[in-house]
Amino acid sequence: MVKIGFISKISDLLISQINSGHVRSVKARKNILISFFIKGISIVIGFIFVPLLINYLGTVEYGIWITLSSIIAWIGYFDIGLGNGLRNKFAESLANNEHEMARIYVSTTYAALSAIFGVFLIVFMFVSPLIDWAAILNAPSTLSKELLILVQITVGFFLIRFVLKLISVIIVADQRPAVSNTFEPLANSISLIGILLLMHYTQPSLVNLGIILGASPVIVLCCVSVYFYNREYKPYRPELKHVNFNYFKDLAGLGVQFFVIQITVVVVLSANNIIITQVVGPEAVTSYNVAYRYFGLISMGFVIIANTYWSAFTEAYVKGDIAWIKKTTKHLIGIWLGIAFLLVVMLVFSDQFYLLWVGEKVKVSFLLSFTSALFVLINVWVSIFTYFINGTGKIKLQLYSTVFAALISVPLAIYLSKYVGLGAAGVVLGSCIAYVPVAILSPIQYFRIVNKKDSGIWGK
């Protein structure tokens, strides 16, 4: 009875803490807690995927799949930032009670994305057979035909998924990221079942894997789109009569800047797989991916928190609630200090974790683990301020600094990995160094904006 009473008191205290403070903060806390639970499920499934796929495909084929996935992920950034543009404009429209305008933005974004990716898909299907995918992926030439089929299937599913994913943008812009976060674990659960069936009934096949991993999120997003656009978001359901390309510039003006930033982030992050494949070999991509996923747990956790606050920052900034913005940012900095300690602990026990997780098939050096942890620490620090800056739409300085990071990251990565001889760790170290200017400028811009001293480039 004493234990039950104690647990009840702790529970009541936690609930009171969650429900205390500003309505915006309460809403954010609830979304964060639910998102952590949901994301935890997704992370568990993701960790199961790695040894499962390595055993199914082998280290070389798994490295090829990871590299191909990174390349295809680049295509998603050819939406010229319309997704992020919609997120800000939809949140602003809701804050100002402009519901008709919100529907116009939604309908116009769906129409624009469908047109962009539709044309891209048609062109890609004609061009892809002319590309030597085996050479790009540093794969055996005997896999050339299989890789072509894999690329076409994966790209097709990816483009469809990207358009359907706009429902997630709308839900997140409405400050309900916990709801949006359920879609990924649902898709991953379907994929996991499909992969287990493949392992039991078929021989290892990259094409079969591509079909399973590509179709699962498309099925989930189709279902949730039908559900939400016939219920809570029916007033914003996309329709042709609400498409108005006169407002496209509102989405694209901000969106193009987001687009360039996204492209540069892709260069800094996703290009690592290609550089490692070409300089070290596909097997090294597997080691890099294992370390990246392990320390990436911290990034995932922080993204759940920071992503919740993006649209909340937009609402607070539109309404002039600077006090809430400052208080929230201080809390995020406190979390970052805790993350620094946690990364040290993870680094100390990394070898034991790798052995337990993937066994002896994959070797990860201490230097690769260290540079991966360092990159996560820098990336989280930058995210504290860029999520606020993104919410205000004043992203021109971020654009310039990330472009600079992209320009120096690739030559740095090649130099450190190939000529200094650091291998995969050198590639990650290059990314760390490239991000230092962004890590310095982002907090400076944040302080200038909240203190109304954001003249010139600081406020554009």
What characteristics describe this protein?
460 residues; mainly alpha; 81% helix; globular
Q: Nutshell version of this structure?
A:
This protein is mainly α and 460 residues long. The chain has helices at 2-18, 23-57, 59-75, 82-95, 99-127, 133-136, 144-164, 166-173, 177-180, 183-201, 206-229, 248-269, 271-279, 282-318, 322-348, 350-358, 366-392, 396-419, 424-434, 436-450.
Describe the structure.
With 460 residues, the protein is mostly helical. The protein has one domain. It is built from 20 helices and no strands. The chain has helices spanning 2-18, 23-57, 59-75, 82-95, 99-127, 133-136, 144-164, 166-173, 177-180, 183-201, 206-229, 248-269, 271-279, 282-318, 322-348, 350-358, 366-392, 396-419, 424-434, 436-450. Helix 3 (59-75) packs antiparallel against helix 13. The protein is globular. The protein starts with a helix and ends in a 10-residue tail after the last helix. The mean pLDDT is 82.
